[in-house]
Amino acid sequence: MKKFHIFSNSFTGTLEIRRKILCAMLIGTGLTLTGCGNSFDHMPDLTEEESAMIAEYAAGILLKHDKNRKALASDYEIEKYDEREAILQANTQELMVTQESSEVENGQEELAETEGAQEAPAPQLAEAAFGGVAQFCGLDGFQIDYKGHVICDSYPPADSEDMVFAMDATQGNKLLVLEFTGRNTTMEDKELNVLEQNVQFRIAVNDSGARNILPTLLLNDLSSYRDVVPAGSEVTLVLVREVTEEEANGISTISLSLRNESGDASTVLE
Question: In sequence order, what E strands does the chain have?
Fold first, then answer.
């Protein structure tokens, strides 16, 4: 809003102008009270400059007594507001640029991670060259050889001397018992400890997939065997898995798979 300085230094010394302004104001007031008519006959002669000053002065008086005047902002306030708006806009733009840059960087990092994950092959256990069960299990001084398999409903057989822990096949299935010989090849008594080698044994029959062996309480279970074998002696060891009656009647191939923390190995037993 424009500021009004009606009596500036260039006019303060002009008493006549002040009088004319006061006279014009009084006449204007009279016109307001009495209406129009011939009141213009009493209007004093004013120069163009004096008329402009009166109009400006009147506007200033109206503004001074306007009850809404306090709601109007000064030039200083408007200038400060504009400065704050400019700063806010600049900060907002800077923030948006920073966020966009961060999003681009994050997107590039995620893309790189995704591409890296796609390029990196999934970790796989190495397929070890099979040199025998004893060698794979790290059983130094021993040799473990496959002897053959037995199909039965119960194991051990009823006529066996070792019937402490017998096991039966579930209905509709048979027990496939793989027999091995564990020989101590040294000249001293030696402990055969398969239990602590943490080896997983799986058996595959024909074209079916390999399946885990059955956990047993058999004293000669190869997967959990731990006992001292005299020098030059051998013990019979077994692994047991269930098969269907149909599989039991048509076994053509038997494979053994082994796994430990070092890798995988497999061998065809029959």
Answer: 142-152, 154-155, 167-168, 173-184, 190-193, 200-205, 211-212, 226-229, 234-244, 254-260, 263-268
